[in-house]
Amino acid sequence: MLDIGIYPAFLAYMCLGKPERAQSIIQRSESGVDRMVSAQLSYPDGRQAQLHASFAGHSPTEAYLAFDKGYLRLARRWHMPTELYISRNGEQEQAFPLQWRGNGYNYEIDECFRCLSHGLKESPRWGWKDSEELMSIIELILSGK
Q1: Dist CA 81 CA 78 (whole Å)
Q2: DSSP assignments along 78-129, one per residue
Q3: Which long-range contacts (CB under 8 A, 24 or more apart) does 56-61 make?
Q4: What's the rounded Cα separation, in Å, for the pair 53 and 61?
Q5: What angle do CA 105, 110, 112 make, to 5 degrees?
Q6: Cα torsion for 91, 92, 97, 100, to the nearest 10°?
Q7: pLDDT tens, position by position, for the chain (145 residues)?
Q8: Domains and their CATH numbers in the chain
Q9: Secondary structure letter of residue 13 according to DSSP
């Protein structure tokens, strides 16, 4: 969860906020490190997020955001997508190209440099509170409560 699992937890947090509950299945390696995690996050208003992260095999690394009348899909390597797909009312997906540079992590580096250059102790885009809440979600998933 602290390596690749943090990314789907981050997306769920960005889209839905902090959940009230998590149910999870965790497969651990011989060393005790979590090797595969599947989790369902539940929110007070009935929304849900389903997350999966694994070192046990390859997955498409896609993100789906489902809504009442359709869904958005960020294709392979969703943290650095080149296309966004939208389906409305069960229609065939439409692709929309996205401008992207680097491997996705460069945006974090740019923001860190910007904050340091301006003497900021935290980013206004992602503050300490966000980091604390994301870590509390990770802990919630690992505890399965």
Answers
A1: 5
A2: TTS-SEEEEEETTPPPEEEE----TTSTHHHHHHHHHHHHTT-SS-SSS-HH
A3: 56/27
A4: 9
A5: 95
A6: 90
A7: 888 888 899 999 999 999 999 999 988 888 888 889 999 999 999 999 999 998 887 778 889 999 999 999 988 778 788 889 999 998 999 999 988 788 878 888 999 999 999 999 999 999 999 999 999 999 999 987 6
A8: 6-143 (3.30.360.10)
A9: H
Say which amino acid occupies 48.
Answer: Q
Q: How many CB atoms lie within 10 A of CB 84?
A: 16
Entry pTM: 0.87
Go through the chain and tell me how many residues it has: 145
Structure tokens at 79: 């943290």
Written as six digits, the tokens of 133 are 């809440």
Structure tokens that stand for 95 in this block: 């692709």
What is the DSSP code (8-state) at residue 14? H
State whether residue 138 is helix, strand or coil.
helix
> 30 near 16, Cβ under 8 Å?
no
Give the type of residue at 131: S
Asked if 142 and 1 touch (Cβ cutoff 8 Å), the reply is yes
d(CA 71, CA 61): 16
